[in-house]
């Protein structure tokens, strides 16, 4: 626009017949620029729509991969509800009904109903079309939720997921479902990579640390790893080494993280396997800011987390 008005100013000084032509040229230029600007805006809206559709499609595939585990997660509380209902019916059939037992049975039924509802709620959230919503998120809570979602699948595959929440500042501004999608992708990849790993070593560590202005999340595995020249190719769309893979998980994860001002990189672990490093800008937490040591944990150790770290204050271990 500013270009249009600058042109208009320059042409206005022309005189004679040239003056009318000169007056038309900037108007035409403005019209062309306006058309191009509108076309560009429409294209970028279209690009954004396509991107969102792709992200959602990949999420549906992701949920599909977890379907056996989700079915199992819902089946468990439903079976417990049924057993408890049968037990209550038996009790009611007795000549002297032990009424003190009934409230306990009803409480169990209620708890299991809530458990099943939680699974369905998580699933619905992942499958919702929803627009991108940024809000304050605690990344530790998000990781715990993701590990809960993967718990059953990990158990089925004999994988142990260990979370070390070392970061003192874990608040980020982001879209919860998209960030969950990123973490699910990276952890599922780690689990895939460990299919051929000896059962005793099939552990993935998910670790958070403070970085300068960002939170660092690392996912370490002891899987088959990749060659050094593949480290960047992994993030290209449709790059896959899996039979049923689409090769979209990492490329979508990178674009989600970049849209959040973050990054993701892959490296080989010295002892074999891979480590994926995610960085996300932290949201300042004024109430606790003074208590935080900005230097603490600034550098991530590329080594396998030490055994001592397993006793970290907020460690969560899932499955055996
Ligand atoms: N932890 C890992 N260890 C070794 N290789 C990995 C790891 N994570 C990803 N890769 C490699 O990167 C490739 C691309 O991963 P990406 O998640 O983008 O796609 P995918 O897992 O093959 O398919 P999908 O689109 O279903 O996720 C994988 O096929 C695999 O070869
Ligand atoms: Mg993947």
UniProtKB/TrEMBL annotation:
Q: What is the designated name of this protein?
A: histidine kinase
Provenance organism: Caldimonas brevitalea
Which reaction equations make up its catalytic activity?
ATP + protein L-histidine = ADP + protein N-phospho-L-histidine
Domain Histidine kinase per the UniProt entry, residue ranges: 69-284
Q: Which GO terms describe its molecular function?
A: ATP binding; phosphorelay sensor kinase activity
Gene3D superfamilies to which the protein is assigned, alphabetical: 1.10.287.130, Histidine kinase-like ATPase, C-terminal domain
Extract the coiled-coil ranges from the record: none
Domain of life, per the record? Answer: Bacteria
Query: Which keywords belong to this entry?
Result: ATP-binding, Kinase, Nucleotide-binding, Phosphoprotein, Transferase, Two-component regulatory system
* InterPro entries named in the record: HATPase_C_sf (IPR036890), HATPase_dom (IPR003594), His_kinase_dom (IPR005467), HisK_dim/P_dom (IPR003661), HisK_dim/P_sf (IPR036097), Sig_transdc_His_kin-like_C (IPR004358)
Q: Which SUPFAM superfamilies match?
A: ATPase domain of HSP90 chaperone/DNA topoisomerase II/histidine kinase, Homodimeric domain of signal transducing histidine kinase
Stretches the record annotates as Disordered:
288-320
Quote the EC number. 2.7.13.3
